[in-house]
Amino acid sequence: MNNAVYLGIAIVAEVIATSALKSSNGFTRLGPSILVVVGYGVAFFCLSFALRTIPTGIAYAIWSGAGIVLVSGVAWVFQGQRLDAAALAGIGLILAGVLVINIFSKSSAH
Predict the structure, then answer these.
(1) pLDDT digits (tens, 9 = 90+) for 11-25
(2) For residue 110, what pLDDT is reported?
(3) Which helix (H) or strand (E) holds 36?
(4) Residue 64: which domain range?
(5) Enclosing H/E stretch for 20
(6) How many domains does the chain have?
(7) Cβ atoms within 10 A of the Cβ of 32, count?
(8) Could you tell me if residue 84 is inside a domain?
(9) Which GO terms describe its biological process (predicted)?
(10) Separation between Cα atoms, residue 42 and residue 104, nearest integer Å
(11) Would 57 be classed as within a structural domain?
(12) Residue 109: inside a domain, yes or no?
């Protein structure tokens, strides 16, 4: 499997795990707590495979940046989180940074 695919799986797993944290109610609810632990386990496992060829700093920038954008979207859609103009602008800048790395940076070449 392509290491970029592993990075994508790591991002999705981390978003699922982070989104389940609120539902776990401080790890007092079993189902969401299991989802958190398994999600983070899958995320770090797949991230470790992605790091075979993707530089650590680049992989982490993409992973964390995409995760922030996606978790914010999930929280907005499913948890009723409100995003004001400043939050949307900041999220837009993070997304722009991830796109710049992926499109223009030679450091991310693998």
Answers:
(1) 999 999 999 999 999
(2) 52
(3) helix 30-50
(4) 3-104
(5) helix 3-24
(6) 1
(7) 18
(8) yes
(9) glycine betaine transport; xenobiotic detoxification by transmembrane export across the plasma membrane
(10) 29
(11) yes
(12) no
- The verdict on residue 60 lying in a domain is yes
**Amino acid letter, 63:** W
* Residue that has been written with the tokens 């899958």 in this structure: 42
Name the pTM for this structure: 0.87
Cα distances from 1 to residues 7, 53, 54, 69, 90, in angstroms, run 11, 12, 14, 25, 33
Per residue in 34-85, pLDDT (tens digit) is: 999 999 999 999 999 999 999 998 999 999 999 999 999 999 999 999 999 9
Three state DSSP letters for 44-95: HHHHHHHCCCCCHHHHHHHHHHHHHHHHHHHHHHHCCCCCCHHHHHHHHHHH
Tokens of 44: 């770090």
Contacts of 99 by beta carbon, 8 Å cutoff, 6+ apart = none
Residue 41 host element (H or E):
helix 30-50
Helix pair angle (56-78, 3-24), 10° resolution: 40
pLDDT at 108 over 80: no
Cα 53 to the chain's mean position, in Å? 19
